[in-house]
Amino acid sequence: MEKRATIKDVAEAAGVGVATVSRVLSGGSASAATRERVLAVAAQLDYRPSALGRNLRQRRTGGIGLLVPDLTDTFYGQLSEGVLACARSAGEPVVIGSTGGDPEQEADLIGMLLEQSVDRLIAVPSGDADTWTPALRAGMTVVFADRLPLQSSSEDVRAAAVADLMALDGLSAAAPARPLDVPAVVADDRAGIRTAVRYLRGLGHKRIAFLGGPGQERRVHAFREAVGAPVDEELVVFGTGSRDSAYAAASGLFQSRPDLSAVVAGGNVLGEAAVLAARELDLRVPRDVSLVMYDDVPWAELCSPPLTVIAQPGRDMGYRAAELVLRAGARKPRSVVLPTELIIRGSCGPRR
Q1: Cα separation, 274 vs 82, whole angstroms
Q2: Which of the two residues, 36 and 246, has the higher pLDDT score?
């Protein structure tokens, strides 16, 4: 029998990515020229759009997809363990993919999961709404974990982050409507960051910096809110997600602002970078600089001194996300906000 054409065959013949083919065949955004080329190639290869997942509900194969930015990140490892534990109890296999924090790679993986008829997906998103629209139009059940997709502009990012934070406090805010209506399991970033900043302020720290990374918009806005206006923007710096970038950001921060006395790192990779950069620059913790890290990971207690952390329940987050995606049916599940906890150890001290 002649081999049936796949979405990857169409992508290669048309000279585009799998995600682009997925968007075109599901009615998503694409230029007129690209759309015409993809449709022509699909017709030539006798490709059947049903393989994209339009008939997912009719030919459900079971299993759950899981997409995370980095499988080597301890927090995402904990989240994955939670998903696997819940799926195992339900007798469901899990297909895991690492996006590298790259929206294009994420889109390609979504297309491949659709091709394989995986109809339920848990994701720590890296892309924006356009990345996720094809999957939702194809009938895939999606639950986000840890964070939500990026907005289309910096203004939308700020407005959405503020709205998210107010929602955590049970308030409402006038903000742009989100293009995606997808349930999510997230941590209470506002309470965690606010408690950490108040703790540092209580120790006498006034020049507190924030070291952030991709997908941490809510934490950044929570930090700005906690320190109050006017915010010294030189004390809010970002890495791109890699360990090298995080180290460069931390090292640059310490060298450009020797007057800072405390740092809140937005994740465990950033916290690791801050510890290494401080050591390289002969900054003593907590005598010269106090450190608070978002995420409680095993090595945090092994540091000298042990790190004060904002702990979020990674494994529980994954488990709850898997519960939501498995129970999804006619009634859409509601989003879940999990509590955080400030665990005080030896990396913070009074301002000298």
Answers
A1: 28
A2: 246
Instruction: For residue 144, give every residue at least 6 positions away whose Cβ sits within 8 Å of its Cβ, in sequence order, or none.
Output: 122, 123, 124, 125, 182, 183, 184, 185, 186, 321
- Beta bridge partner(s), residue 185: 145, 336
pLDDT of 56 strictly over 50: no
Neighbouring residues of 177: CB distance < 8 A, sequence distance ≥ 6: none
Stretch among 149-158, 297-306, 342-351 having the lowest mean pLDDT: 149-158
Q: Residue 342 — φ and ψ, nearest 5°?
A: -85, 120
The dihedral built from the CA positions of residue 25, 31, 32 and 34, taken in this order, carries a sign that is: negative
pLDDT for residue 4: 72
Distance between CA 119 and CA 329 in Å, rounded? 12
Residues 222, 165 contacting (CB under 8 angstroms): yes
Q: How far apart are CA 186 and CA 259, in angstroms?
A: 34
Q: CA 165 to CA 127: how far, in whole Å?
A: 21
Q: How far is CA 154 from CA 50, 102, 163, in A?
A: 36, 18, 14
Residue 35: phi, psi to the nearest 5?
A: -60, -45
CB within 8 A of 254, min separation 6: which ones? 260, 277, 278, 281, 283, 289
DSSP letter, residue 301 = G
Q: What is the pLDDT of residues 1-21, one digit of tens each?
A: 456 778 888 889 999 888 788
- Up-side HSE of residue 162: CA atoms within 13 Å toward CB? 12
Torsion of CA 72, 130, 10, 57, to 10 degrees: 90
Cα gap 204→198, rounded to integer Å: 10
Q: CA nearest 347: which of 152, 245, 196?
A: 196
Global pTM reads 0.76
More confident residue, 43 or 193: 193
Tokens of 249: 């950001």
